[in-house]
Design goal:
It is built from 6 helices and 18 strands. By secondary structure, it is of the alpha+beta class. The protein has an 18-stranded antiparallel sheet that branches. The protein is globular.
Length: about 350
Amino acid sequence: MRDLPPVARFGGLIATDLRDVTSDPAALDSSGWWAVVAGFEGEVVCARFADVRPATPADAPDPARWSGPATGAWHSSLDRDSYTAGVRRVRAHIAAGDVYQVNLCRVLSAPLPDPDRSDVDALTALLAHGNPAPYAGTIRLPAHGVEVATASPELYLRRTGRTVDSGPIKGTGRTAADLSDKDRAENVMIVDLVRNDLGRVCATGTVTVPALCAAEEHPGLVHLVSTVRGDLADAHEKTAWADLLTATFPPGSVTGAPKESALRIIGELERAPRGPYCGGIGWVDADRGTGELAVGIRTFWIDRTDPGGPALRFGAGAGIIWDSDPVREWAETELKAHRLLAVASGRHGTSGGEQR
């Protein structure tokens, strides 16, 4: 699908006519409308589009431009035994006082059966029907190696003028009754981390928590979601996005606490780069001083550099604390992945989607 033009699609808007691409987040406080992908490992792609307008039915992508992997073709960077061993290793780090929580993730990959029918914009449309999400979107920049379709339910950063919001998710169950004290403890830990991160760029005394551990329903599962809010300090207002990313990235909900220790343990235990997964994905309108980046969870991306041929990738993880049960944490990653892999494989509603 390399002949398809660049496009971005978020919040009912479609952006075309690509003008600039840069890795410098300072551009987000210049001018114009930008699509943004900040990969977990630190790489940033900012793409400025000249034509941004409400999408109409005529703008809908052709579903025939998507041919997904077979349901049995998915392979995991960590299999069940490796993942549960990783959970036990995280618990050992907690017992040693190295860390309080670590988000342990695995990357699922499958070969694309027909690379010429692999338009992530068409995949985003399928996800919108099979797994609607508040921060869903597409960023398609084939010449720059960016082909991302997200169905993220989680707000990383929203900026409106000087006000910044973050909406960390911690705690997942099939129903609200499944949410436990362990889930709430996880959420509170990450809220404290996000408050600290935002406190680095917000005015003293302005960082608040308008909502703590609210149950929020999504297709097939329920999350605990909190809201953290602050007002940018005067010193950071004109360089807000660069400063915000420096202060808060990677998002606390997909790293752990303390963040530096959690990142070190993640580097030890995970066997594949996360890429766009667990990074930041969304848009910034520099002219209006607004923007919205989601945490790159429930996110697919195409890797056309894989030696085995073009591959579709997807990440799933869980927050590990002392009370974590390794088998239950593995099951949580399965729950998060199952529905979306079925959608991507064209088998939503079937029993497909088992990972090896």
